[in-house]
């Protein structure tokens, strides 16, 4: 609030109305409804629903398939987050070093930001095409018969690779802007204090990038959990079968295809709690950001 | 220590480092670029050639044919989802989403920053909370509401539910708070009302911010997949990104897969957002790194 605001009564309400109306209708109502239907068992033929308490949740807890998917999602998230952060950090440090061609490199390393996840998945399908895909050929030359969509491990490998490819640019942009905001005086001081660039990186640059890194960590976990939906959907060609899938994909498969509204809603609620916890954790981090300057 | 001695010390070990820097950056750029080049190459050859030899280093002469069949042939039964129709739908989604989000966000941010409102804090928290839960976790109930309101297969249904989050509102709130107080005071002394102040002073002042937001939101809207998949079932309403899954099913058929056409459509789905990001790079990077922090 500005000190010198306007005193008009009706105008601000009018200005806020569209925003509030849309979030009430398409945010609060659906979120509340998801929580509510997670306690009900819906008749698949549409003949009403009955209250079942926590049954949908206990079902999930005892469901070995759900456990497997949760495990895979965890592994997938760790791998995608680690590799896309590490690769982006390496590239950002190098891009920050060079002067010649700096702008060119920046462009070449960030354009993938604008590629939609399912389109990235589609390109993955081509790269791993059984008959002529360049990456499948490459794998074959090492004696690895890559079978996308058939072999669980192969499909999972492709999912991780495509998701990393798609996520590196975002991390790169943030790391680079973080690096460029390190004051020149600090860099020069470091240059005098530490001769080896390796030491300079770990002792000076890396700690200074820590706030950006923590912020990106959360962004990447959220990405791997939710935004990779398109990658997963296209790579398994819409046929889950015994292919790997993530928790969000399972919500979609059970709710939209399997018509298990209650079970799907319970899964939604679990994800909501997860993402809420992550976000609150993030805000607390931002609040007392780790600062060395 | 004079400048020359310092240079002599620093220069030697740096030179090899520079070569390594460039090498890493070139490898990174190739990692990003090669998949796109492969898609590009296969759009210039016949499908038979692609199946026989896979992607090659030669540019073929089938670009026109593939382009025409991508733009003017439909893949489904209805014959409505031609490339040109999907392109139009994608543009409507991207631009409509970006404009809607900016308009609603600016209005709400203006109300929150410049007016004395009794329930301002409450409204702020209501809007703020929407940042916590992504659409993916409340997808089924959102779909049910869109269905009840008769919004399936309409542009309104495609765009409006996606606007139900507050990213733009926060971005503009941050910016408005950084605008000097004296401007409002001066405007009030000159007799400008809140509407005039908003349109004649605040909007022109926010031009760069609006541009940055527009680019980010356009890319975000264009790349939406899950929501369009659920809410559009008529092929005439498909966006390019939503149509991707149908392309993958085309490639599975018993006939000769139409790689040229499918890859051309993927290319058309990639290019507009990528070009926007490349051409308006500095705005885009500024908007991205400042809005998310």
Order of helices and strands of chain A: HEEHHHHHHHHHHH
Which overall shape of chain A is indicated by the principal axes computed on the Cα atoms?
Answer: globular
| Chain pair forming the biggest interface | A-B, 95 and 102 residues
Name the poorly predicted regions of chain A: none
Strand segment count of chain A: 2
Q: What percent of the residues of chain B sit in helical stretches (DSSP H or I)? A: over 70%
Oligomer status: heterodimer
Report the sheet with the most strands of chain A, covering strand number, pairing sense and barrel closure. Answer: 2 strands, antiparallel
Radius of gyration of chain B equals 25 Å
What ranges of chain B have pLDDT less than 50 throughout 5 or more consecutive residues?
1-9
Number of domains of chain B: 1
Biggest β-sheet of chain B: count, sense, barrel? none
What is the typical, i.e. mean, pLDDT of chain A? 87
The global form of chain B is: globular
CATH domain class of the domain at 65-246 in chain A: Mainly Alpha
Radius of gyration of chain A in whole Å, from Cα? 24 Å
Question: Percent of residues of chain A in helical segments?
Answer: over 70%
In angstroms, what separates the terminal alpha carbons of chain A?
30 Å
- Please count the beta strands of chain B (DSSP E, at least 2 residues each): 0
The appropriate CATH architecture of the domain at 65-246 in chain A is: Orthogonal Bundle
- CATH level 3 topology of the domain at 65-246 in chain A: MetI-like fold
